Sequence to fold (73 residues):
Amino acid sequence: QKSRKVATIASLITSGNTPQIKWHISGGLDSGVITKEEVEEVIIQMVIYIGFPQTLNAMKVAREVFKEKGLVD
Fold:
């Protein structure tokens, strides 16, 4: 379950599909399959493959989800 969610989120990040990234992060957090920290790690790992700007966009989407769920530090 976790590896599928991580692979899906990573794939969507590389494609830049923002609505789907948000939906999968939210669903993964709600189901307990992935944690906030794991989402951040996946996004940070993508920087070497997709570049800094697209990684920042993905992190912005993730932070929106974290804020909606009350997970902001």
In short: The mean pLDDT is 93.
